[in-house]
Specification:
- The chain is about 20% helix and about 45% strand.
- The chain is an alpha+beta fold.
- The chain has one domain (about 25-165).
- Helix 1 (about 1-15) runs antiparallel to helix 3 (about 170-190).
- It is globular and about 80 Å long.
Length: about 190
């Protein structure tokens, strides 16, 4: 009787772990950035130049109700690998860092210029996260994740942009609860067999 009760409780814990409760801790929250305060961007028909010197292109960043932060985009001249829209750049072409309060997020951009003319450019692609601190991890930006990024340039400046996280990620406590439930269920099944 005690074994059946233990098995039932273990399976109940396991079932609870697979419900929506398991995803409650991580709430994906978009990061918004721009305009830049230093540096300039030149968009042409064969390349885009991000000119910020050694310091990079810097500007403002925000996330939900956190205090205002900053972004840093590395300087680079990116030559388009094809002559038609979308204009593709090589992978991991630029470093991108966001700092808001005590939290920092770093990674590499792999983007395309989806639209360009003499004054305006629209860039979109992927942001591969190499490191992040707890505040960003808890809002959907874990190290190793690849998330969406896009930004607009206008008249030599980065006008605005956003980084969008993926799906919610289970919290570590939930993963431990799932593991415990699986171990208990496996132990009970082993004894039965």
């Amino acid at each position: 009787m005690a074994r059946k009760l233990t098995l039932t409780v273990a399976l109940l814990v396991l079932a609870m772990a697979f419900t929506s409760v398991s995803f409650a801790a991580v709430v994906p929250t978009q990061i918004t950035f721009g305009p830049n305060t230093t540096g300039s961007i030149t968009v042409g028909t064969t390349q885009a130049s991000f000119n910020g010197g050694i310091q990079g292109i810097k500007g403002y960043a925000w996330q939900a109700n956190k205090p205002q932060g900053s972004f840093d985009l590395s300087s680079a001249t990116l030559t388009y690998t094809n002559g038609n829209s979308p204009y593709t750049f090589g992978p991991n072409s630029q470093g991108f860092t966001v700092s808001i309060g005590p939290d920092t997020l770093t990674g590499w951009l792999s983007v395309q210029a989806l639209y360009i003319n003499a004054k305006y450019g629209f860039f979109a692609g992927a942001y591969q996260i190499t490191s992040s601190t707890a505040g960003f991890i808890n809002t959907g930006f874990a190290p190793g994740a690849v998330v969406d990024i896009d930004f607009v340039t206008y008249n030599g400046s980065l006008s605005s942009g956003e980084i969008n996280p993926g799906s919610p990620v289970p919290e570590p406590g939930t993963i431990a609860m799932v593991g415990s439930g699986l171990l208990a269920a496996a132990g009970m099944l082993r004894r039965k067999l």
